[in-house]
Description:
Elements: H1 3-30, H2 35-39, H3 46-56, H4 62-74, H5 88-119, H6 124-143, H7 146-165
Helix pairs in contact: 5-6, 5-7
Amino acid sequence: xxxxxxxxxxxxxxxxxxxxxxxxxxxxxxxxxxxxxxxxxxxxxxxxxxxxxxxxxxxxxxxxxxxxxxxxxxxxxxxxxxxxxxxxxxxxxxxxxxxxxxxxxxxxxxxxxxxxxxxxxxxxxxxxxxxxxxxxxxxxxxxxxxxxxxxxxxxxxxxxxxxxxxxxxxxxxxxxxxxxxxxx
Length: 184
């Protein structure tokens, strides 16, 4: 990679982030449902609803709402969760270690399977099928959502533990997403 290309990519980061922010903001606004209706208790007066809308800035023009939202997001202020009444940033931080662990393990599995698939020699139709299956599994291993990868790893641990203890109670039906493509 040349220096010009690196600089060009670095220059494109801010407009890309702003574009993603605009898309996220618009998607949050077009989703059906009213966040105020979720927060207000039944039987609240229209004045209470208007006061809550003003408190959250939902009575402002849409451009002003975006500027406020984007500015707060840049400062790391993602607001408070409506359902658990905690800071969203704290909630994300609390789940970050498990997310990073799953992402690192999924990447490790994908790299290992991809390396094995790349090193193996192709010879005959049986080897080609095995090679394609390993390659597809390694690619999907890197592209599966972390939740699915985590569930697969948990099931693999259950198999290992049940084989060691002699208790074979294992069901693949509990997985939500399992996909392995075999290329021909």
